[in-house]
Amino acid sequence: MPATAFSTLPLSPATLANLDRLGYREMTAIQAASLPPALLGKDLIAQAKTGSGKTAAFALALLANLNPRRFAVQSLVLCPTRELADQVTAEVRRLARAEDNTKVVTLTGGVPLRGQLTTLEHGAHVVVGTPGRVLDHLERGSLRLDALNTLVLDEADRMLDMGFLDDIAKVVKQCPPQRQTLLFSATYPEGIARLAARFMREPVTVKVAAQH
Ligand code: ADP
Ligand code: MG
What we know:
Elements: H1 13-21, H2 29-39, E1 44-47, H3 54-64, E2 75-78, H4 82-95, E3 104-107, H5 113-121, E4 126-129, H6 131-140, E5 150-153, H7 156-161, H8 165-173, E6 180-185, H9 190-199, E7 204-207
Bound molecules: adenosine-5'-diphosphate and magnesium ion.
Magnesium ion is lined by residues 54-55, 154-155.
């Protein structure tokens, strides 16, 4: 069995069968580097270029922490844009086991609040959103994060470039301190190190260098 087979990971048979059905036969380099520490529950900083499969890496980690019988928001993924949030939502839904009925909700700006409020009233396991809109829901009381176990900062470099640091800090303040935090980024500017020092606990850093 190659070292990059998903079956080397502590994933359930149903999840492995689902990956196979999706045509995900082998892990990409960043998945092979980040999934073992992430599945051990460690905080993680993962850096790899766009298109390297970072979404599935954090999606499998947050789904492994999820109890589908507990109907509360257990994972939050913050993304820089609505388009990226929609892509992440689609990937998490694909990777979730059908029998778990995992409810994934997208909360981004540029979409009327009313529909999001109604959706949240019906409950969710996973929230994927942009920092401003997620904060808006936290301040309205329409979203609670007290049952959160996994926080993902996706495209962290872009979120910093777009000026989301203050909103991210306010959202993190409402997350339980004993959560797992996973940070994914294509580049590693100084701001990422400061973000990690502020919001993460002894993070493991993995980096996949660009191929030449
Ligand atoms: P990134 O977030 O690093 O830019 P994505 O998560 O969007 O990259 O993944 C890029 C593409 O690779 C997606 O179309 C995804 O479905 C596909 N992909 C991810 N992991 C695998 C895998 N292990 N095997 C095959 N395809 C994969
Ligand atoms: Mg990505």
